[in-house]
Amino acid sequence: MPIKWRLAVLMADREIDYKELAEMTGMHPVTISKHKNIRVMPERLERETLEKYCKALNCQPGDLLTYVPDEPKGQTSAS
Length: 79
What we know:
mainly alpha, 434 Repressor (Amino-terminal Domain), 5 helices, Lambda_DNA-bd_dom_sf, Cro/C1-type_HTH
């Protein structure tokens, strides 16, 4: 899971629910809900959609996406 999708984190930080974000972006609430509830970057994300999220949440694309490299095989992280 090298690229994490952080829409839910940004929405929580800004105390915005999916209905509010739908109104702010003009997107359908079901689409917002689907995007909010996934942890990895959507397989297909239109530039226009990303721009709407950035405008509504006053953020940069990098705030929504985080690169997390996979660990090499045979290694596990210490907890």
